[in-house]
Design goal:
single chain, mainly alpha, 25 helices, 2 strands, 76% helix, 2% strand
Length: 600
């Protein structure tokens, strides 16, 4: 359970706040060492929870834990030059721990725990500068949007729980049934669920994954996430939260295939996101917004094809996108701007950042022989639908267009202004640039065979030489065009397809109106009904008092008056004189004697 180390140290940093930079970087380095060990040793940990739960490292999660840990180390080293607060490093380490827990979880319950903590940490990190109302609002929009998708994971877990309970009840009423249910609730057993639970679970997982990975129609939250510090963007957009949805869809490929409809739905959602968000990226004038839209587009590629192709693209994209975001963050720190029009000559002014950024942008464009050129075509090689394949090719051309636009903006011109950057914080950039350049090696025939076998996707389609040559030529042509001439900006797409406006209009405002109506009904109708009960009781009491209580009070008062009169009469003989008492006794005896005589 390698996630425990970063999560525990992160929580400790939030409390102790001692030497946060050193502790965070050291912890990240140790986590990377543990990740490499776990990828080789493949540990498995099981424990009783609702059912038998646990964590395990297999082929796909081995790739993910190393990728997450490596990118986290690079981002935290870079962040030492921008942020120095223990709160930041503590939140980042917990965020990394939650992602590691998510990718190693073997069962929906523990996966959901890591998923939730990751979402909470992303909210805290996006709104890290909490005194800025706009940033806090952006964090809230991102959190609510992803939470809306996350409801699908709860539905999936509930449906899997119900199905597994029913199955265990029919098979065995004892402990063996519980164990069987636990196995069905595990990620590996979801494809064996019966109808209609199979479709419900698949729908819930698809909804949650598309929301987490900012695929259509959830993409706009990633634009809002740009309000956070640049290291947060670099980690969130490359190997952690946004990649979590793609990872989950790759993990449950057997489930998607078993439904018959979920696999094509996910592939088309990814393809359309890659195409439309590529257009959004091309329309941006803010470098971080351009990179954010391109993240949505590249995640779309990951879920279009096979597990082997998607995982290869995920790993290569993690290196590329963390590199590009760190470069953007370095320029934002040094120059105080992220507008493309104001970044002219930034690459020349800071050559280490500029050269590294150039490698990342060229890889993002799909330029041969860099990594995404190979991995993107590896994804498309497994796409059998010709229309979807055409969408993927068009999206690839757009990748070259927006990457070329960003590259031209930072290299054209010359400048001498800007504050110096800390050399140590820039050390990860050349390393990430090397990864962005060479990770496409998985596309080589011998390596691809090992890679697909590692991921349990034996026989996965690999891009042939003709396809690679065609895509490389197209990417090169589009890239050169973007560098030489100013490409038209599709300004209608600049507001992220109006997705946030649509969500506010179609969902948020109606929900608020419904909530206000429910509150009015509660306050006026329900509370009024409750308050009317004692009022009616008091009125009934007053009505009952008028005819009955007055007479009863009169009788009581009459009895009391009569008793009082008798008491006054009885008091008169009580004079305190002995002869008076003797006379009274004599009179009494006489009366008694007369009475006896009359009776006889």
């Amino acid at each position: 359970m390698i996630w425990i180390l970063p999560a525990a140290v992160g929580a400790l940093l939030l409390l102790v706040r001692r030497a946060p930079r050193t502790v965070a970087v050291t912890t990240a380095a140790a986590t990377l060492g543990l990740a490499v060990w776990a990828a080789a040793a493949r540990p498995v940990t099981r424990f009783p929870l609702v059912f038998t739960s646990g964590f395990a490292v297999d082929g796909l999660s081995a790739v993910m834990v190393v990728t997450v840990a490596a990118v986290a180390l690079a981002v935290l080293v870079f962040a030492t030059g921008e942020l120095r607060e223990a709160r930041f490093y503590g939140l980042m380490l917990i965020f990394v721990g939650a992602m590691l827990a998510t990718v190693t979880a073997t069962e929906l319950t523990v996966l959901l725990m890591g998923w939730e903590v990751m979402g909470a940490m992303s909210y805290a990190l996006i709104g890290y500068w909490w005194r800025d109302d706009d940033r806090v609002t952006s964090a809230g929009v991102a959190f609510v949007t992803t939470r809306a998708g996350d409801l699908g994971l709860y539905v999936a877990a509930g449906a899997a729980f119900a199905a597994s309970t029913m199955q265990s009840g029919t098979k065995s009423g004892g402990q063996g049934g519980t164990q069987a249910a636990g196995e069905v609730l595990g990620l590996a057993g979801l494809a064996a669920l019966p109808d209609p639970w199979l479709d419900v679970v698949a729908a819930g997982i698809v909804l949650a994954a598309l929301g987490k990975s900012a695929q259509l129609p959830f993409s706009f939250w990633l634009s809002r996430a740009m309000a956070g510090p640049s290291p947060v963007s670099a980690l969130l957009h490359s190997a952690t939260m946004v990649a979590a949805g793609a990872y989950l869809l790759l993990r449950v490929q057997p489930l998607l295939a078993a439904t018959g409809w979920a696999g094509p739905l996910v592939a088309w959602a990814g393809g359309l996101t890659a195409l439309l968000l590529g257009g959004v990226a091309l329309a941006q004038r803010d470098l971080k917004q351009l990179l954010a839209a391109s993240t949505c587009a590249q995640i779309g590629f990951m879920v279009m094809g096979s597990v082997a192709g998607g995982a290869a693209h995920l790993v290569a994209h993690a290196a590329v996108k963390s590199l590009l975001f760190l470069g953007a963050g370095a320029w934002l720190t040094a120059l105080g701007t992220k507008q493309l029009s104001a970044l002219g000559g930034a690459a020349r002014r800071y050559p280490v950042v500029g050269a590294s950024f150039a490698v990342g942008a060229l890889a993002l464009a799909g330029l041969p022989p860099l990594s995404l050129w190979v991995t993107k075509d590896g994804v498309l090689a497994a796409v059998n639908d010709p229309w979807l394949h055409a969408v993927g090719l068009a999206a690839g051309a757009l990748s070259a267009a927006y990457a070329g636009r960003a590259l031209a903006a930072v290299w054209r011109g010359a400048r001498t202004d800007g504050r110096p950057l800390e050399a140590f914080s820039l050390a990860p950039l050349p390393v990430l640039a090397a990864g962005a350049a060479v990770l496409g090696v998985v596309g080589l025939p011998a390596v691809w065979s090992w890679w697909s076998g590692l991921l349990g996707d034996q026989g996965a389609a690999r891009a042939d030489a003709g396809t690679l040559a065609l895509s490389g030529t197209l990417a090169t042509a589009v890239l050169l065009t973007a560098l030489v001439v100013r490409l038209p900006e599709p300004r209608p797409l600049a507001n992220w397809l109006g997705l946030e406006t649509a969500a506010r209009t179609l969902l948020w405002r109606p929900l608020l109106a419904l909530a206000r109506a429910a509150a009015w009904f509660d306050d006026r109708v329900l509370d009024g009904a409750v308050e009317a009960v004692p009022r009616l009781g008091m009125a009934a009491a007053r009505l009952a008092r008028t005819p009955f209580e007055t007479g009863a009070d009169g009788v009581v008062r009459a009895v009391g008056a009569a008793a009082l009169g008798l008491g006054r009469l009885a008091r008169r003989p009580q004079t305190g004189q002995v002869h008076t008492y003797l006379a009274q006794a004599a009179v009494g005896l006489i009366i008694l004697a007369v009475a006896i005589a009359l009776v006889r």
